[in-house]
Amino acid sequence: MFKKLIVSFLCSIVVACTVFGGFCLLYFAIPSQKAKASISLPSTVEDSENAAESTTEDTDSENKNVYVADVYQSLTLRSEASADSDAITDLEPMTHLEVLEFTAGTNYAYVEVLSGEKKSYKGYVNSDYITKLGEPTVRIGTEE
């Protein structure tokens, strides 16, 4: 009889704690109407490093062929329009590029780098790995 009383007491404690925890979760997790009204989010989200660059780039590159490096790891900037040519550098994912010319008979484009540490570098990239700015990206390569 004493064991049943202890088990019943402990069960009622567990139920009471669960109910109390639920009320606390609702009270603290759901913002009030006043809090919801005071929240304002920016219309676009930008990386803090690219925010300053993008304001000047937007005005300069309105009429240009701006593309992004649509890769997971890196995109190789080469000295010639060939996979066998010397690599100049590796570009980070989502680096902005201005396409100066698509090389006829190859899948390479002659580009100038518009953003990041490699800004103003010129060379050739495989055009399969770039996407026009504003279009959905594919992110070719592995996600490692």
Name its key features.
144 residues; alpha+beta; 2 domains; 5-stranded antiparallel sheet; two-stranded antiparallel sheet; 3 helices
How does this model look, in words?
This protein has 144 residues and is of the alpha+beta class. It folds into two domains: 2-38; 48-132, SH3 Domains (SH3 type barrels), CATH 2.30.30.40. Helix content is 33%, strand content 24%. The protein has helices spanning 2-29, 33-38, 48-60, and strands spanning 66-69, 75-78, 87-91, 96-102, 108-113, 122-126, 130-132. The strands form two sheets. It has a five-stranded antiparallel beta sheet with strand order 6-5-4-1-7, with no helix packed on it. The radius of gyration is 28 Å and the shape is elongated.
Could you outline the blueprint of secondary structure elements for this entry?
Elements: H1 2-29, H2 33-38, H3 48-60, E1 66-69, E2 75-78, E3 87-91, E4 96-102, E5 108-113, E6 122-126, E7 130-132
Antiparallel strand pairs: 1-4, 1-7, 2-3, 4-5, 5-6
Task: Give a brief description.
The chain is α+β, with helices and mostly antiparallel strands and 144 residues long. The protein contains three helices and seven strands. The protein has two domains: 2-38; 48-132, Roll (SH3 type barrels).
